[in-house]
Design a protein that fits this description.
By secondary structure, the chain is an all-beta fold. It has one domain: Elongation Factor Tu (Ef-tu), domain 3. Helices cover about 0% and strands about 55% of the residues. It has no helices and 10 strands. The strands form 2 sheets. Strands 5-4-10-1-2-9-6-7 form an 8-stranded antiparallel beta sheet, with no helix packed on it. Strand 1 and strand 2 form a beta hairpin. The chain is globular, with a radius of gyration of 11 Å. It starts with a strand and ends with a strand.
Protein backbone atom coordinates (compact mmCIF):
# COMPACT_ATOMS: atom_id res chain seq x y z
CA UNK A 1 0.00 0.00 0.00
CA UNK A 2 1.21 3.46 -0.87
CA UNK A 3 1.38 6.19 1.78
CA UNK A 4 1.89 9.95 1.63
CA UNK A 5 2.92 12.08 4.60
CA UNK A 6 0.16 14.59 5.37
CA UNK A 7 1.26 16.03 8.71
CA UNK A 8 2.40 15.41 12.25
CA UNK A 9 0.92 15.21 15.73
CA UNK A 10 1.00 18.57 17.46
CA UNK A 11 -0.68 17.55 20.75
CA UNK A 12 -2.54 14.62 22.30
CA UNK A 13 -5.44 14.89 24.75
CA UNK A 14 -5.32 11.60 26.66
CA UNK A 15 -8.64 12.09 28.48
CA UNK A 16 -10.43 12.66 25.15
CA UNK A 17 -8.34 10.29 22.98
CA UNK A 18 -7.94 13.14 20.50
CA UNK A 19 -4.80 13.91 18.54
CA UNK A 20 -4.20 17.38 17.09
CA UNK A 21 -2.66 17.07 13.63
CA UNK A 22 -0.85 19.92 11.85
CA UNK A 23 -1.76 19.17 8.24
CA UNK A 24 0.52 19.62 5.24
CA UNK A 25 -2.07 18.11 2.87
CA UNK A 26 -5.84 17.49 2.77
CA UNK A 27 -7.65 15.00 5.01
CA UNK A 28 -11.27 13.81 4.72
CA UNK A 29 -13.64 11.75 6.84
CA UNK A 30 -13.30 8.12 5.79
CA UNK A 31 -9.59 8.42 4.89
CA UNK A 32 -7.28 5.80 6.34
CA UNK A 33 -4.29 7.22 8.19
CA UNK A 34 -1.10 5.59 9.45
CA UNK A 35 0.50 7.17 12.53
CA UNK A 36 4.13 6.33 13.11
CA UNK A 37 6.45 7.51 15.84
CA UNK A 38 9.00 6.30 18.37
CA UNK A 39 6.41 4.28 20.31
CA UNK A 40 3.38 4.34 17.98
CA UNK A 41 2.75 2.53 14.69
CA UNK A 42 -0.88 1.89 13.76
CA UNK A 43 -3.50 2.46 11.07
CA UNK A 44 -7.07 3.71 11.53
CA UNK A 45 -9.98 5.22 9.62
CA UNK A 46 -10.79 8.89 10.32
CA UNK A 47 -14.39 8.87 11.60
CA UNK A 48 -14.42 12.07 13.68
CA UNK A 49 -12.68 15.33 12.84
CA UNK A 50 -12.90 18.92 14.09
CA UNK A 51 -11.32 22.25 13.20
CA UNK A 52 -11.61 24.91 15.93
CA UNK A 53 -14.23 22.80 17.78
CA UNK A 54 -16.48 22.53 14.70
CA UNK A 55 -17.20 19.18 13.06
CA UNK A 56 -15.85 19.10 9.50
CA UNK A 57 -15.78 16.53 6.69
CA UNK A 58 -12.58 17.84 5.14
CA UNK A 59 -9.52 19.82 6.28
CA UNK A 60 -6.77 21.39 4.20
CA UNK A 61 -3.04 21.98 4.43
CA UNK A 62 -2.20 24.41 7.23
CA UNK A 63 -5.19 23.41 9.39
CA UNK A 64 -4.85 22.15 12.95
CA UNK A 65 -7.38 19.31 13.04
CA UNK A 66 -8.55 17.27 16.03
CA UNK A 67 -9.04 13.57 15.23
CA UNK A 68 -10.40 10.84 17.50
CA UNK A 69 -7.44 8.45 17.89
CA UNK A 70 -7.65 4.74 18.77
CA UNK A 71 -4.22 4.55 20.47
CA UNK A 72 -1.93 6.92 22.38
CA UNK A 73 0.22 9.16 20.19
CA UNK A 74 3.00 11.63 20.90
CA UNK A 75 3.93 15.07 19.59
CA UNK A 76 6.05 14.88 16.41
CA UNK A 77 4.62 11.46 15.40
CA UNK A 78 4.28 11.45 11.60
CA UNK A 79 0.84 11.09 10.01
CA UNK A 80 0.50 9.41 6.61
CA UNK A 81 -2.57 8.99 4.37
CA UNK A 82 -2.92 5.43 3.07
CA UNK A 83 -3.64 5.45 -0.67
CA UNK A 84 -5.38 2.34 -1.99
Amino acid sequence: MEEREIGSINHYYNHLSVGIIQLSDTLKLGDTIHIKGHTSDFTQVVDSMQVEHNNVTEAKAGDLVGVKITQKVNPKDKVFKVIA
